[in-house]
Specification:
Layout (H helix, E strand, L loop, with lengths): L2 E6 L10 H10 L2 E7 L6 H10 L3 E5 L13 H11 L3 E8 L7 H18 L3 E6 L2 H10 L7 E4 L8 H7 L1 E6 L8 H6 L8 E4 L16 E2 L6 E2 L5 H12 L3 H20 L3
Parallel strand pairs: 1-2, 2-3, 3-4, 4-5, 5-6, 6-7, 7-8
Antiparallel strand pairs: 9-10
The chain binds zinc ion.
Zinc ion (ZN) binds next to loops.
Length: 270
């Protein structure tokens, strides 16, 4: 079975700084591709290095709304340089009103610039959104969008919005975190995602599965806090198969097609 992690942060130091070992474990579990998302200028070089090291990595570069305040005056040029360096996607970008002291106009400006860039270059884009779904939909309806579509990672928006977003080209990825009891609304929403728009993600090192499903326990070496291992993607597939009452084999075949349709061009190497 070929597994695809639509969204993680393999470069994150909380994973312990041994990407070769993490990757070997993920490959053993069946991973063939993973989209590794940079979040700010500081971690983009690490994402680029991982892409050079591992053919499984689809590198993605973007300014995450949590870090837009830290951007340098040259951030656009730095981003363009990374995009020119390797076949890549754009992300993680987005809007976040959950963040304390958020500056939404500033977030929107950075988001829209990157979204337009994705549309112009025909690159898939990964979007993070917390508590700003109405505004996101408005912006997406008004903006040029990449022709192959875009990913709403860890989609937690309203079920009623799924069809409008899908019409615009959205793909929706489900994280293992939605297994948790308190995430029942988010989990149920995924029963309404069009079959050809479903993707699966770990969001490692974040969004851990409950302990009984966590097959690869891992701890941040600095804080000793538990973190999510990217090899847990198989457990997320299993949970999704149960949720949708679909055999794992047909689910994985469908997710493979969806992944290739959205990210295929960026993951083929020149
Ligand atoms: Zn993320």
């Amino acid at each position: 079975m070929h597994l695809y992690d639509a969204h993680n942060h393999l470069q994150d130091p909380r994973l312990g700084g041994n990407p070769a070992e993490l990757m070997a474990t993920a490959i053993k579990e069946g991973v063939v591709k993973m989209v590794v998302n940079g979040s700010c200028e500081e971690d983009w070089p690490a994402v680029a290095a991982l892409a050079r090291q591992f053919p499984q990595v689809v590198p993605s570069f973007g300014y995450h709304p949590w870090y837009v305040k830290e951007r340098s005056p040259e951030w656009k040029e730095v981003l363009l340089n990374h995009l020119d360096e390797v076949p890549s996607a754009i992300g993680e970008i987005g809007l976040d009103r959950w963040l304390k002291d958020h500056d939404l106009p500033d977030q929107e400006e950075v988001f829209l610039w990157q979204l337009r860039l994705a549309a112009e270059r025909g690159l898939p884009v990964s979007i993070h959104c917390l508590q700003a779904w109405g505004r996101l939909l408005e912006l997406l309806q008004a903006a040029p969008l990449p022709r192959q579509g875009f990913l709403l990672h860890s989609y937690g928006g309203p079920q009623e919005m799924v069809s409008s977003l899908a019409k615009l080209g959205a793909y929706f990825s489900i994280p293992g975190y939605f297994v948790h009891e308190r995430k029942s609304r988010q989990r149920e929403t995924f029963r309404h995602v069009p079959p050809d728009r479903l993707l699966i993600e770990t969001d490692a090192p974040d969004q851990s599965l409950p302990e009984e499903r966590n097959r690869h326990p891992l701890h941040d070496p600095v804080t000793n806090k538990p973190v999510n291992h990217p090899a847990n993607i198989r457990a997320v597939y299993e949970f999704t198969a149960e949720l949708l009452a679909e055999p794992l084999e047909s689910l994985s075949a469908r997710v493979e097609e969806n992944f290739q349709r959205l990210f295929g061009r960026t993951s083929s190497r020149t």
